[in-house]
Design goal:
Blueprint: H1 4-10, H2 16-32, H3 38-66, H4 86-110, H5 115-127, H6 142-163, H7 168-191, H8 193-199, H9 204-208, H10 210-230, H11 245-256, H12 265-288
Family: Belongs to the MenA family. Type 1 subfamily.
Subcellular location: Cell membrane; Membrane
GO molecular function: 1,4-dihydroxy-2-naphthoate polyprenyltransferase activity
Length: 289
């Protein structure tokens, strides 16, 4: 039976910034419009964190029963390493999705009914990333899904439930966070190209190949800094987002340096931290404005 520490590691804490950053950025965008509602921000955070834990456990379960995780070079997987049964990991995923659903329903009731449909779409996308007969994560669409759901939907959704509208500042912030979030997955899939190719998991990195995947990561971590420059049109304080640029440059170092396997793991963590730092800096700038 897996220990509490192993369950925590299995939830993939390095991906938590992907859930926290969009809520911070979206709240900053709502503050730019003068409409922060803190309790809704907290509920949005619960939804986002529960969803990412759910998708991580669902991914662990689906990849584990397919045998994709049998020869991993990254952090431990619960099913693949056989420290937890597939059924228990699947149950943990469903529980996380339930928490996200309850918090999301509370937001929908107090904001807009159609958010229920958005929430159902998020849960379905989370499950079918590696679940079902034809998981889209095995066809090269994982990065697009991450950009959409942990970028556009999460940031714009957080702004909407508080300000009851979405403006260009929120949309650009969503593009920046989505780019960082996708870059985390790109680094992960770059590391796993050899094992994914062998197991038949055709990720975007497998499709692009090593060299072009490294270029893609560089482009994605540059986009948020460009967004910060564009947001000057809203307020010069948006330049606070550039505080993340040095960390993003450092995150890309193993990628552009040709590192592979476990040597790419720091790129995942640093890209996530850069995303979090960008969101905090930008949110503070928008609030100061």
């Amino acid at each position: 039976m897996a220990s509490a520490a192993q369950w925590f590691e299995g939830s993939r804490p390095r991906t938590y910034p992907n859930a926290i950053a969009p809520v911070i950025a979206g709240t900053g965008a709502a503050g730019w419009l003068g409409d922060i509602v803190w309790w809704k921000a907290v509920l949005a955070l619960v939804v986002s964190v529960a969803l990412i834990i759910g998708v991580n456990f669902a991914n662990d379960y689906s990849d584990g029963i397919r045998g994709t995780d049998d020869d991993r070079v990254g952090p431990m997987r619960l099913v693949g390493s056989k420290v937890a049964t597939p059924r228990s990991v699947k149950t943990a995923a469903i529980a996380a999705f339930a928490v996200a659903g309850i918090a999301g329903l509370a937001l929908a009731v107090t904001s807009a009914w159609w958010l229920v449909l958005v929430g159902l779409g998020c849960i379905a996308a989370a499950w079918y990333y590696t679940g079902g007969r034809n998981p889209y994560g095995y066809s090269g669409f994982g990065e697009i899904a991450v950009f959409v759901f942990f970028g556009l939907v999460a940031v714009c959704g957080t702004q909407f439930v508080q300000a009851e509208t979405i403006d260009w500042v929120g949309l650009l912030s969503a593009v920046a966070v989505g780019s960082y979030s996708s870059a985390v997955l790109v680094a992960n899939n770059l590391r796993d190209i050899p094992t994914d190719t062998e197991s038949g998991k055709i990720t975007l990195a497998v499709r692009l190949g090593d060299k072009r995947t490294r270029t893609l990561h560089a482009v994605l971590v540059i986009v948020p800094s460009v967004v910060s420059l564009v947001l000057i049109a809203a307020t010069p304080w948006a330049l606070l987002g550039l505080v993340a640029a040095p960390l993003a440059f450092k995150a890309n170092a193993p990628v552009r340096g040709g590192a592979g396997g476990p040597a790419l793991i720091p790129a995942l963590a640093l890209t996530g931290l850069a995303m979090l730092l960008w969101s905090i800096g930008t949110a503070i700038g928008l609030l100061l404005a």
